[in-house]
Amino acid sequence: MRAKYIMKEGSVLLELKIPKEILKSPVAMEIIIASFSQPSVGSYLDAFLNGKVRSWFSLELVSLGGQVKFFIWAPKKFKNPIESQVYAQFPTVEVHEVSDYTLATQFSDISMWGMQLELTKADPYPIKTYIDYGLDKDPKEEFKIDPMTPLVEFLASSMGTGHNAWIQFILRAHKAEDWDSTEKKLVDKRWALGASDEVKKIREKTKSKDSLEPPRRLTKAEEDAILAIEKSVTKPGFDVTIRAVYTAPKDIFSAAVGAGITAGLRNYNSGELNGFKGINNPDVKYSFPWQDRKKKKRNKLKTNLLDSYKNRGAFYNEFKTEYFVLNTEELATIYHLPGGVATTPAFDRIGSKKSEAPSNLPL
């Protein structure tokens, strides 16, 4: 029933064509992402009898032969609302419905590297966000330090014809899903209550083994961690799965591309707080006694990863996988429209601005 419902919903892939200048900070993208919060599926009847599921979305940063592009994948019914939100925040951006760039890629024709990410610490710990980089203050272009720029530059400058690198951030509105038998209701142990638990753990470290001694004072790092955790959960949270895929013909495939993508995603890591690391990497070495068994295992993992990417699957049916929780500020940090600080000529930008026609034009 779920599969039938999802197929009936249909999907749309929207490309965001970016002008030469974007002067807005990632705050504008945070507003767009916040509009994706669709926590309800309606009635239980819809969910259990008709297969209705919570809507999910995919923000995608893609390099096709060195041309960097931005996409938003969504259920078809959200096409117009998404366009309205984008134009409201970025009037000079163009939004076009396009065909799916993933469909032409078949695993049998290419060499492939892939990775799925997880957090280094518990979900309530935040990653390094655009506010930490000062981008919320709209600094001049020459003073901007945008953590996404190195990844965009790498995707543009390190790949040519035949090389394709795809990164997707799949998200779904987070909600309480843990049953509390004492209170007889659903609670959010992973996010809201999880934050309280992490703060308690930090405070527990200050207590002495001798019960008669008073707890020591919090260190500056511990105080900052508590403030960051408490601030993180005040913003809307999303269940998130992040995948990266790199493909190329076997004769030009470069393993260094995977390392470059991984390094680019580490720009959001904060040593004292949170960050990303790879899991389920289909390119890891398995200790099988026979080479053919090892190759079959790796190929199966790669095929599954490619299928999951193409279907934008993460939360339901055969594509259900691990996810973590990020808030809107964190999501806007890892996916936003960069300003002029990203200067590579391979970055696909619009050559001219569009504006409304004058109202006094003769008919």
How are the elements arranged and paired?
Blueprint: H1 2-9, E1 11-19, H2 27-34, H3 44-49, E2 56-64, E3 67-75, H4 79-89, E4 94-97, E5 111-119, H5 149-157, E6 164-173, E7 178-180, E8 185-187, H6 192-204, H7 220-232, E9 237-248, H8 256-265, E10 276-279, H9 291-310, E11 324-327, H10 328-334, E12 349-350
Parallel strand pairs: 1-12
Antiparallel strand pairs: 1-3, 1-4, 2-3, 2-6, 5-9, 5-10, 6-9, 7-8, 9-11
Helix pairs in contact: 2-4, 2-10, 5-8, 6-7
Would you tell me the structural class of the helices and strands?
A: alpha+beta
Query: What is the number of domains?
Result: 2
Q: Roughly how many Å is the radius of gyration?
A: 22 Å
Q: How many helices?
A: 10
Question: What is the overall pLDDT average?
Answer: 86
Kindly identify the CATH topology of the largest domain: Vanillyl-alcohol Oxidase, Chain A, domain 3
**In what range is the share of β-strand residues?**
15-25%
Helix proportion range? 25-40%
Which CATH class of the largest domain applies here?
A: Alpha Beta
SSE pattern: HEHHEEHEEHEEEHHEHEHEHE
Largest sheet: 10 strands, mixed
Strand tally: 12
**Morphology:** globular
Q: Span from first to last CA? A: 54 Å
Which keywords apply here?
ten-stranded mixed sheet; globular; alpha+beta; Vanillyl-alcohol Oxidase, Chain A, domain 3; 363 residues
Describe it for me?
The chain has about 375 residues and is α+β, with helices and mostly antiparallel strands. It folds into two domains: about 1-175 and about 240-350, Vanillyl-alcohol Oxidase, Chain A, domain 3 (3-Layer(aba) Sandwich); about 175-235, no CATH class. Helix content is about 30%, strand content about 20%. It is built from ten helices and twelve strands. The strands form two sheets. Strands 1, 2, 3, 4, 5, 6, 9, 10, 11 and 12 form a ten-stranded mixed β-sheet that branches. A two-stranded antiparallel sheet has the order 7-8. Helix 5 packs antiparallel against helix 8 and helix 6 runs antiparallel to helix 7 (about 220-230). The longest helix is centred in the last third of the chain and has 20 residues, at about 290-310. The N and C termini lie far apart (about 55 Å).
